[in-house]
Amino acid sequence: MGGRTQTVLLNHNATISCSVSGPSRLDLNITAVTWFWKNPVTGTDDKVFEVFGGCSKAFRPGAGVSLQGLVKGNASLQLPEVQLWQAGEYRCKVVNTPNMDQGTISLEVVACPVISLSVKVKDNDYQHLLCEARGFHPKLINITWCKWDQEYSQCLNISENVTTNAVIENDDKTFNVTSFLTRKCSPEHAGTYQCMVAHVSLCTPRRRNITVPENGSEPKSNSGMPLWIIFPCLVIWIGVCCVTGPTLLIVY
């Protein structure tokens, strides 16, 4: 039953699904459920939670399996405010005397990037547009630039004069990265520029716009973006683009 992956956002609650198919109602007096997590450091299978004969014990704070749900065949593991270190392989072992079965599932913990777009004046002739992505996980991320063409109402990709720094790991194991677009301070380079960030935690790429005026006045960020652009992580969890995981099915 391996090979399945479930994704959860950092600091969100997770329910790792495990379903027991058999009798319409399980007898908790002869049913035992044990959840294990494969420790990536030691390689051992550490107990997370177990229940037997209606008595339960959590080996990780907040972990649990609903006894009311277990009677109906739902042996799903509930974890509160999941952290990055809790990612990895989980194993659900169910004993319904005299039968036993088990299955594994991988939990992936992701963190959405916080995006900001600003301008740094290099000198009187050039400016740096800075697109910063902070606090994301995993490490892989893609940042691209474009400039809005008013005549054709489209954003034209920019590849020249773009520099993206190496990704930096934070103490909490999330990552930061900055991308620079260097432009000359001239009327032909005025207009609206867009930084687009793509990451596995986002349903769609996240965008930030900034308008650079011709007269050299202070550039203005575009604050009139739709909710789904400003809060993409919120969208993931209210059903528009819901990240869901598979269910382990244990059959007797």
Structure overview:
The structure is a single chain. The protein is mainly beta. The chain has 2 domains: 5-110 and 239-251, Immunoglobulin-like (Sandwich), CATH 2.60.40; 114-221, Immunoglobulin-like (Sandwich). The chain has 3 helices and 20 strands. The chain has helices spanning 67-71, 227-230, 232-237; strands at residues 5-9, 14-16, 18-21, 31-38, 45-52, 55-58, 77-79, 88-96, 99-110, 114-121, 126-136, 142-149, 154-158, 162-164, 168-169, 175-184, 191-198, 206-212, 220-221, 248-251. It has a 6-stranded mixed sheet, with no helix packed on it. Strands 10, 11, 14, 15 and 16 form a 5-stranded antiparallel sheet that branches. A hairpin with a 7-residue loop joins β17 (191-198) and β18.
Features:
2 domains; 20 strands; Immunoglobulin-like; mainly beta; 5-stranded antiparallel beta sheet; 252 residues; 49% strand; 6-stranded mixed beta sheet; 6% helix
Q: End-to-end span in angstroms? A: 14 Å
Number of domains: 2
Biggest sheet: strand arrangement? 1-9-8-4-5-6
CATH level-two architecture of the largest domain: Sandwich
**Which band does the percent of strand residues land in?**
over 45%
Low-pLDDT residue spans = 223-232, 234-244
